[in-house]
Amino acid sequence: MLTSFFSKSRPINFVVVALYILVFFIIANSSGPAGSGFLFVLEKLGVLLVLLMSVFLLNFVSKRNELTTRNAYKTILFAAFICMFLAALRNDAAILANLLVLLALRRIISLRTQRDTIQKIFDATFWIGIASVFYFWSILFLFLVYFGILVHEGYRFKNWLVPVVSLLVLFSIVTSIDLLITDSFYTFSDWFVASNFDFSYYREPLVLIPLALLLALTVWATFVYLGVIQKASANTKTSLFIILLFTLVSMTVAVLAPTKNSSELIFFFAPLAIIVTNYFQVSEDKWFREILLWVVLLLPVVLVLFFA
């Protein structure tokens, strides 16, 4: 059974996940506006590597912080979610920004140890700041940094100033690079990207069908997830709640994103994969779990065959 195969975290599971992503990544980047030549292929190989690193990082953060048990559900779910939206597989900037946000998430959750706090706050802010250079609205994930400070180290005033210092350092670095390359200062207009609220593309079956499934999964699994949070230990409870906030912020980023072609949903996939994995772990209806996993994995195939 498929659920049995992914119920453990083994190297073969990651090989299957990598191959699954590879197939749809090739389909997405060969059917969209494609370039040609060695540099294009090299660029896409780099983006694919970043995407696979995101999968491994998601798995590492989940296991290290007890967000899930040791299984491969979260990795295959994340892979399936992103493969449902071919536009996300074509958006190099969003894929890179998503990896940087996951790196920040790792540092935010590790604040619970209350060791090297200033360094962790600085790093998390720095990663999110870099992500915003590639994808402006990912700057909203700074909310998670401040929530982590509030929960773990809010009584130390200097911790609240660390994100500001981190962003100033990043601004200095970006400005220096911009001066060297373009001989001009990096300004707010270079960084800021206005929102676009035209959701007309969401009516297309290629987006509407998988989005409806994901929203239904979110509502269904979140009720179970809230129960998991209540039963968790104090340290783990905070980390699990951060994932819930991560989900809400990622939805906000998607709403405010400048381009509405479904690639803006990419930040939503990692937290949703963790939430749905928790549902898989506690659900006693094995046949429903089996059918649900098959539906999630086969939907990208159906979308490519009939709508792409």
**Alpha plus pi helix count:** 14
Q: Spans with pLDDT under 50 lasting ≥5 residues?
A: none
Q: Name the shape in a single word.
A: globular
Structural class: mainly alpha
**Amino- and carboxy-terminal Cα gap:** 29 Å
Mean pLDDT: 93
Reported for the largest beta sheet, the result is:
none
Please summarize what this structure is:
With 308 residues, the protein is mainly α.
Could you describe the 3D structure shown?
The protein is an all-alpha fold. The chain contains 14 helices and no strands. It starts with a helix and ends with a helix.
Secondary-structure map with pairings?
Elements: H1 2-5, H2 11-31, H3 38-64, H4 73-83, H5 86-90, H6 92-109, H7 117-134, H8 142-153, H9 157-182, H10 188-191, H11 205-231, H12 234-256, H13 266-282, H14 286-306
Helix pairs in contact: 2-3, 2-4, 3-4, 3-6, 4-13, 4-14, 6-7, 6-8, 7-8, 7-9, 8-12, 11-12, 11-13, 11-14, 12-13
Comma- or semicolon-separated keywords:
308 residues; mainly alpha
